[in-house]
Design goal:
By secondary structure, the chain is of the alpha/beta class. The chain has two domains: 7-134, 3-Layer(aba) Sandwich (Rossmann fold); 154-295, Glucose Oxidase, domain 1 (3-Layer(bba) Sandwich), CATH 3.50.30.60. Helix content is 27%, strand content 22%. The chain has helices at residues 20-32, 54-66, 91-96, 107-118, 137-147, 181-185, 210-222, 248-256, and strands at 7-11, 36-39, 72-75, 100-103, 122-124, 154-155, 165-168, 171-180, 200-206, 231-238, 263-267, 278-280, 283-287, 292-295. An eight-stranded mixed β-sheet has the order 6-14-13-8-9-10-11-7. Helix 3 links the parallel strand 3 and strand 4.
Length: 307
């Protein structure tokens, strides 16, 4: 459970940092909140598309997991390339050294694979750049309710001005997984392919035109990823572009609603101004009749400050 006075380790696991000021503001905000901050060796490194070679970025992450003074690992950003570190990770070591880990965007793949391979809950939530004075209180409330309390059951609530919508009624209970659509599609056909069987599947996206989203949804459909999931949660498609007169919502209605899986839409996730915290791997109840999403277990442990 994350508490004031704990130490947060920062890692850059994908694309390099292009605006150090944003990261420095985040570091200072974390310190103002009462946390100590430790930087990975390659937080500000630059190696073209990625911050550093894959083995070096992986070593930064493993160092954070094996450092007993680190209570939480926080991504500086997503971008691209996080998947390339997977062959260099020791998922057994990660499992034996549980930490809170948070991020979104391309961090989606790491959050899900740690859950799949190490059986640890992870958090599709804030990154360092989200810790700034003008961040909505909602984002912090969601984050700290998930990481600093053992409250359960706990409803994942949208901000008052963003209404959850029911697309297919029904009620299902199971582990919640997923995140950024682009990142999830990139796992298909690899040893790190997303496992949706018996899961509640979350999808969100940003800055993608509808024709690209169409391609990605088809790939997931044809890979059977919607066949065995229990239910579907559609997040926001932030700054997504309309193609051929077809919107993101049009695609969801045409491709996913006919599957008949319990489904809600408009969850404030990932790249939006408002960001809920999704505990990847936690058991949740999806009520798609009277739209709600309830976490049924504590997502951190009181007795172990490193969980």
């Amino acid at each position: 459970m994350l508490q004031r006075g704990d130490t947060i380790g920062l890692v850059t696991l994908g694309s390099p940092i292009l605006n150090q000021t944003t990261i420095n503001i985040g570091i200072q905000t974390l310190r103002n909140l009462g946390f100590h901050v430790v930087l990975g060796r390659h937080v500000f490194s630059y190696d073209g598309i990625v911050a550093a070679p894959a083995d070096q970025r992986a070593a930064d992450l493993m160092d954070m997991f094996t450092n007993p003074s680190i209570n939480m690992i926080l991504a500086t950003r997503g971008g691209t390339g996080i998947q390339s570190i997977f062959p260099y990770l020791d998922f057994g070591v990660i499992s034996r050294n549980p930490k809170i880990i948070s991020g979104y965007s391309d961090m989606t793949v790491l959050l899900n694979i740690i859950y799949q391979f190490s059986n640890l809950l992870t958090f599709h939530s804030l990154m360092v750049g989200d810790f700034r004075p003008n961040t909505p209180a909602y984002n912090f409330d969601q984050f700290f309710e998930a990481t600093s309390t053992i409250t359960s059951p706990r409803i994942i609530e949208n901000p008052p001005n963003i209404v959850l919508r029911s697309l297919v009624p029904g009620n299902v209970t199971g582990p919640i997984i997923g995140g950024n659509l682009t990142s999830l599609v990139n796992t298909l056909g690899t040893p790190y392919e997303i496992d949706t069987s018996g899961k509640i599947f979350v999808i969100e996206e940003t800055n993608a035109p509808s024709n690209t989203i169409y391609r990605y949804l088809l790939q997931l459909l044809m890979s059977g990823k919607f066949d065995d999931c229990l239910g579907i949660v559609i997040g926001q498609c932030t700054n997504c572009l309309v193609s051929y007169g077809t919107t993101f919502d049009d695609l969801i209605n045409a491709l996913l609603v006919p599957l008949g899986k319990p489904m809600i839409a408009n969850l404030a996730t990932g790249h939006g101004y408002y960001k809920t915290t999704i505990p990847i791997g936690a058991t949740v109840r999806l009520n798609a009749t009277e739209p709600s999403l309830t976490v049924l277990e504590a997502t951190v442990q009181l007795e172990n400050p490193n969980v």
